[in-house]
Amino acid sequence: MLTKRIIPCLDIKDGRTVKGVNFVDLRDAGDPVELAQRYADEGADELVFLDISASQEKRKTLAKLVRNVAQAIDIPFTVGGGINAVDDVAILLDNGADKVSINSAAVRRPELISEVANRFGTQCVVVAIDAKQIKNEWVVHLVGGRVPTERMLFEWTKEAVVRGAGELLFTSMDHDGTKQGFANEALQKLSRQVSVPIIASGGAGTMQHFIDTFVDGNADAALAASVFHFKEISIPELKNTLRQHQIPIR
Amino acid sequence: MSVAIIDYGAGNIQSIRFALERLGISAILTSSKEEIKAASHVIFPGVGEASSAMTKLQSTGLDTLIPALKQPVLGICLGMQLMCNHSEEGDTKGLGIFDTDVVRFTTDLNVPHMGWNEVDGKGVLFDQIPANSHFYLVHSFYAESNENAVGHCVYDTTFAAAMAKDNFYGTQFHPEKSGEMGARLLKNFLQQ
Questions:
Q1: How many domains is chain B built from?
Q2: What is the pTM (predicted TM-score) of this model?
Q3: What is the ipTM of this complex?
Q4: Opening angle at CA A151, ends A148 and A156, nearest 5
């Protein structure tokens, strides 16, 4: 049976992990390769790296990092952040990334999704969406959630899939950072209207939240950062718990 | 041992090279017929669309070279699909090594079939790999079960996840991305 996926997310700035990583027994908690290796060994099913470096110069560091990660780990990984053109994608895939995540640039210029899908296949195109509820509408936001757009979540995701998204990564800004659980109602609705896998993101606080998002949200994968980085939830323990709840897990 | 990974401009082939490096084996990425013929083992990867990949093979003559190879050959993902008789994707005639056709999933489940799924495998490729181990797959088309199938996977329908015939092997899943069991499978192939 196809299993549900657990995906730790690493924020990268200038080639280092940021946003608090609390692994006391790592030699260097800022080294993304070491952390990635650690998660892979613990049973993570996939990894996501989000680059938040600003300048183009720093993005060269990213390509090198992607290569180092690809050499070290034997599970799939996605790289996102600052992808604006097909050439950006080519560099990341050539260095060993399996998928790329496109967010703001896809909203600004939706053709980018098709361009990437046509050249490299839909399987490597993850369209990431940050959305927040405003007056009962899920409004898509840009630039890490700072800028609201005219786009609404359900219309935008449908369009993204038609254009060639092979997977959707939906982050609820209302839930992100709260540790109160994922946006399961919206996730459930999303899963009914598109036929590509959906990664739930934002709100993980307890193991029960993962159970809920797989059962109630019908998510195909669940992404989290701090609960893993700060060892509030261990991946082997989480997977055991999910198994006990009859959720298919590797 | 000299391993050649066929480079015909189809997808992420670095990952396979890196996976072999983790096993202590350095491989060459090449489109040269001489280098491919001279290798002890050949890996035929592929990600992307079948008809354009086949066009690339034809333009370099690799479509006639590959079926004539005598050393162990492993097709991965689209590589394996192209080794079949025919693919529904782009109505593509295959290399005709494995006696089966490749068709699109028709299901209410998500397509692509993406993630880790159990493979029920047997034979040399699966030596020391426990029954129903998980492997990583991502594909929208699948090879129908057939007499060359040595591994099966279930997603809505049962399909051929691994095949073997003479010196030819194929996996629909990505051993290079399938953790410890994937590494084991690559090792098993290289021991042939």
A1: 1
A2: 0.94
A3: 0.92
A4: 135
